[in-house]
Amino acid sequence: MRLLKNSNTIRMIFGILMVLIYLAMSYVFAIINPLALSRPFAIIIGVLLFIYGIFRAFRLWKQ
Fold first, then answer.
1. Residues 52, 20 contacting (CB under 8 angstroms)
2. SS (H, E, C) the chain
3. Per-residue pLDDT reduced to its tens digit, 11-35
4. What is the pLDDT of residue 7?
């Protein structure tokens, strides 16, 4: 039983970490643009990463 609880805790921490990474990457691509991509393309990538980060957060919250 303890292993199952520990596994759920690790999964929750990993999920939160991934949401934060996706949101941070969306900021980096949309605002900073480190790869010197064209501005519209960088914003599109940033928006897609932001939407996916919100989607992952919603799925994590639903669990």
1. no
2. CHHHHHHHHHHHHHHHHHHHHHHHHHHHHHHHCCCCCCHHHHHHHHHHHHHHHHHHHHHHHHC
3. 889 999 999 999 999 999 989 888 8
4. 78
The length of the chain, given as a count of residues? 63
For residue 44, the enclosing domain spans: 2-62
Residue with tokens 């970490």: 17
d(CA 46, CA 54): 12
Of 11, 12, 20, which is closest to residue 49 (Cα–Cα)? 20
Domains of the chain: total:
1
pLDDT 10s digits, 28-54 = 998 988 888 889 999 999 999 999 999
